[in-house]
Every structure is written in structure tokens, then in C-alpha cells.
Amino acid sequence: MNIQLVPLHYVYLAFIVLIIAIMVRRRDTTIICVAGIMTTGLLATETLNGSVSGIFSSFIYAAKELLSTIFIISIIVAMSRVLIRTGINEVMVTPLTRFIRSPQVAYWGIGFIMMIVSLFFWPSPAVALVGAVLLPVAVRVGLPPIGAAIAMNLFGHGIALSGDYIIQGAPKLTADAAGLPVTAVMTASIPLVIVMGTVSTVTAFWMLRKEMKSGSPVKLSDPISGEAVTVHPPLSDSAPISEEPAVQRQPMPPRLQKVFALIIPLLFLVDVILMFLLKLQGGDATALIGGTAVLILIAVSLAAHRHTGSEETTNYLIEGFQFGFKVFGPVIPIAAFFYLGDAAITELFNNPLPAGSHGIVNDLGVALAGLVPLNNTVGAITMTVTGAVTGMDGSGFSGISLVGSIASMFAGSADSAPVLTALGQVAAIWVGGGTLIPWALIPAAAICGVSPFELARRNLKPVLLGLTVTTIVAIFLI
């Protein structure tokens, strides 16, 4: 199949290479993405006003595509805030502390609990939900704070976020960019996430084994109340980083806390059951989780704040949306550029491509396949490296649209496309989502009282080994 490449194709490819180069240097890519949109628009419309207007139009297009993901994250964060302030999160997790009797159990226990909570709440809120309660218990039985931070990072920001099987924000971004169904990417990612998670967490555990011993008591600061909590083993590694102001608690009767602590997990369990029974996936599954979270937020707010419950519900939602748009704000310009590589170019600029074109990225993929002898090994290694590079900005999400686009270029067949897309997604999230980039590690580092740079250093070998093994597995799966 012959594809006619025009200057628009080459300019778009040049900006992709430039964006990757800027990411390698750990610089922000927003301005260069805007420049790419403007240049693409200028070539597509051959008018300056069309080019300038295309910047805003592409932002709107990207925002529409990302809106459901932004909303679900914002709502989940809003709900988690009210659970933290009312103490319901402590009641929910406290029964599990009776099973933590050794540092080994603490490491794996914190990890698996963090993974489960992160699947529903996403890792950043889950760090507060899990770490505030389990950290003192874990340190008391001999797990150093750096070990708790590693467990929360690898299981939450690594395993849970790279798969993202409940909220489905990550697979939606990569699947849309690759032109694949979300379910195809999610299915392909399962063995890769399992391999990556197993290798990295076991390696990190093995490296921690000498530090799992008790020592003299020290004091940690409770991230919610700000009060000192006495624990026995000494803090390891660097001194705690500066803490954020303590969150004020909202009193709630213990009996009511227990009722909500029982009902909330049951509601989400019902959601999961309904997803399987009704075959709800993608946007439908996200809508079910989001609607449930809103109802929980309203119920807890009314019960905790009573007469001011309505106003406080709005305040919690404002906090949630502030968080959501702060996280996804840098993503929108980047996504806007990469959406131009697919359907957006036709919708925004009135089909400037030659007849028979299937989008800029698809055209480049066809042309590349005809020029370069691609194979499974080259494709898998390329996707891992690309995903890791895009994660260097510390977001994890800002570059996975690029990952999906490049996966469609390197896919030699319909069967290999989901695997390559999932591999790039796993690499991008593990590197940039909060396991290797220091400025992305602050939530877990802060709650555990360790340096984010030390945490990144400790995660480096396990994550790199995991990526290597996962890439090898992907080669055999293609």
C-alpha cells in the first residue's frame, strides 16, 4: 500500500522527535507542543488566523476527549478528602493492621492494600488513605519508612496505575491514540503488568531484607492530625522533607464511622460485580464508579457536617476539581498535539491530508514499514524506550498519547498493536507515574518522611530490571 507523504507529515514527525528530545532533557514540553499545533495548522490551512485558531480548537478537542478522565479523578479525590477528614479511612483500614506482625508482612501487606485502594482511588489519594494508618504499624514491626514508601510506590504508582483496570484513564489515552479498543489494550497489558510488578517488587524486597530490623524508638508526624506518633525502628536514609499543613479533622461519632467504613467498600464491591455482570467497560465503568463516589461524598458530608453539609460538599468538590485540573493541566496541550496525528486533524482543519490517508501517524507507520525492516524485537525495545522517555517529565500521563501513536506505527499486525501499546503504557507509567522521577515521588515520600531523591534511587534497579524482563516477555507475546 503506497501512501503519499506531504510536508505536513514530515513537520509533524519532526515535532515528535523534538518533543522526545526535550523530554530527555527533563524540560517542559508545553510551548513546543503549542508550536507544533500552530505549525501543523499553518500547513493545513495555509492561513495565519486558521493556525492561531487551531491552537485553541485543539485544546478544546483534547479537553473533550479527556473530560471524563479528569472528572473521575477529581470526584475520587473529593471523596477521599472527606473520608480522611472524618476518620472513616482509618476505620476502614484499621482491622487489617492486626495481621501485620513482621516487616515482611508489612511490606507485602502495605503493597497489596495500596494496590487495591489505588485501583479505585488512584495512587495519590491512596497514599494518604493507606499510609497515614499503616505506616506507624509497619515501622513498629521493623519495616523502615523507606521500605514502606517503596512498597506504596511500586504497588500503587506502578502496578495499579500502569494497569488502571477500574478507572481506565491510562488505557483510554493510549488506546485512543493507537486507534484501538480500550479492552484490547487492557487485555494485552495483564501479563505485562504481572511480570513488571512481580520482578520489581520482589527485587526491591530482596534489596531491603538487611534493613528489616528493629531499633530505637523515634517519632513520625501523622500527616492528617500533625500529632507525633512514636514508632520503634529508626528512620533510615535522608531526613524528612518539609510537611504540608495538617488537615483539620471533622468529628464523627465512632458508630457512624463504622457504618460508613462497612458500606463504602461494599458499594464499590457491588460496582465491580455490576461491571462483570453487565459487561460495563471504559466510559460506562468509569461513570458507575464516579456516580457511586459522588453519592458517598454527599452522604458522608451530610452526616459529618449536618446543617452545612451542602456547602461542604461543594467545597470538597472544588478541592477535587482543583486537584484534577492541576494534574491534567499540563496534559491537555500535549494531548492536543498528539490528537492531531489521528482524527483531530480532519475535524479541526477540514481534511488537509491526501486522498486515501488514514491520519498522519498511520500514514507515517505505513511509510516506515515500507522502508525499514521492522521486527518484534525492534518494536518492543522501541516502545519501552519511548514510554520511559515520555515519563521523564514526571507525569506519566502526558506522553502516553505519543506511546499509543508510535505503537500503531511499529505494529506489524493487528495482534501486535495492543501488546506494543500496552508495553509503552507500562513503561511510561512506571517511569513517570511516581516510581523513578523524584518530583513525582513527593506524595509517598512526604507521608513516609523520606527524601524523594533517595526513594527514586532505591526504586531505580528494581524498575529497570522489571522493564528489561517485561520487554523480553512482550517480544514473545507479539
Describe this structure in words.
The chain is mainly alpha-helical and about 475 residues long. The chain has one domain (about 5-475). Helices cover about 75% and strands about 0% of the residues. It is built from 20 helices and two strands. It has helices at about 5-25, 30-45, 50-85, 90-95, 105-120, 125-140, 145-165, 170-180, 180-210, 255-280, 285-305, 310-330, 330-340, 345-350, 360-370, 375-390, 400-410, 415-435, 440-450, 450-475; strands at about 220, 230. A two-stranded antiparallel sheet has the order 1-2. About 50% of the residues are buried. Mean pLDDT is about 80; it is low at about 215-245. It comes from Paenibacillus pabuli. Keywords: Membrane, Transmembrane, Transmembrane helix. This is Transporter.
Main sheet: strand order: 1-2
The number of helical elements comes to 20
H-E string: HHHHHHHHHEEHHHHHHHHHHH
Mean pLDDT: 81
Low-confidence stretches: 214-246
Radius of gyration: 23 Å
User: How many independent structural domains?
Assistant: 1
Strand content: under 5%
DSSP helix fraction: over 70%
Structural class: mainly alpha
Find the count of extended strands (DSSP E, 2+ residues).
Answer: 2
Major sheet size, sense and barrel closure: 2 strands, antiparallel
Query: Roughly how many Å apart are the termini?
Result: 23 Å
- The outline comes out as globular
